[in-house]
Amino acid sequence: MTHTVIKVVNLSKQFKSKQILQDISFEVKEGYCLALIGPNGAGKTTLMNCLLGDYVPTSGTVEVFEKLASHPSLKEKVGILFQENQTEQKMKVSELLDFQKAIYPTPLSDKEIDDLLQFTEQQKNQFAEKLSGGQRRLLAFVQVLVGQPDILILDEPTAGMDTSTRKRFWEIIAELKKAGKTIIYSSHYIEEVEHTADRILVLHEGKLLRDTTPYLLRSEEKEKVFTLPADYLSVVKEQVIGDLVVKTDTLTFTTKQPQVVWNALAAAQCPIEDIEMTNRTLLNTIFDMAKEKDHENV
């Protein structure tokens, strides 16, 4: 039976008069992959800093391995990948990895590092700053793994990665999960989270809206988003719809009665190839709300 490695109880964090996190509670079991989802400003990075012990909670507690998150003994047990790539200048990839190995008492072997990174000898002997953005991101991730931490905290880990590098990243994550590592990461890629996380925490404006799983999130009530020719506006207006947007030659709307709308369009002889239909979930709604708020503040 897996045991709890992280316990957050009634966590709130405030900077001066600004409330960043509000009354958040959750636990994480050993070997779980937990995704933090939410728009910019939701509090994801602040929460990660509290888990690392870098921020002291305004109220509530954060425990890691039954110790306060700020306990010095946890530094070797928890690895962090920051959101921004911080590539050292004028150092070769091999030099960076050798330096990283020298820091820790039981680092990964050269073979283990090579298996993770899958760089050519030429890539290992070039300056790290000359790598592509995705390769630098993968290198930064492997640097975090060199010390063999038990818990990994990854802030937007796949940002800037191309498709092949992102695929390699998730292959490594799968291997780490099998090895019993606990992983917490933030992401804006909803589809990615649904395929990789065991649990999902949905944050919005510093509050925990959902503590759920990909399966349960997918099974929540969804709205359907329709896009079709503007010629069928009169048909659509007779249905139970929302968020109607009419453009020159197309219209878009949401509905929770897709079958009824579909039947009406079929009766009006709307060609099926002219109809586009997608899902709109809670996460889509939250991100859309955040985009509207950002636009209003510009």
Short description:
The protein is α/β, with parallel strands linked by helices. The chain has helices at residues 44-52, 93-103, 110-117, 121-124, 133-145, 163-178, 190-196, 214-219, 233-237, 258-267, 282-297; strands spanning 4-15, 18-29, 33-37, 59-64, 67-68, 78-81, 151-154, 182-187, 199-204, 207-212, 223-229, 242-246, 250-255, 276-280.
Report what the structure shows.
This protein has helices spanning 44-52, 93-103, 110-117, 121-124, 133-145, 163-178, 190-196, 214-219, 233-237, 258-267, 282-297; strands at residues 4-15, 18-29, 33-37, 59-64, 67-68, 78-81, 151-154, 182-187, 199-204, 207-212, 223-229, 242-246, 250-255, 276-280. The chain is 35% helix and 29% strand. The protein is built from eleven helices and 14 strands. It is of the alpha/beta class and 298 residues long. It has two domains: 4-219, Rossmann fold, CATH 3.40.50; 223-280, Alpha-Beta Plaits (2-Layer Sandwich), CATH 3.30.70. The model is unreliable at 294-298 (pLDDT under 50).
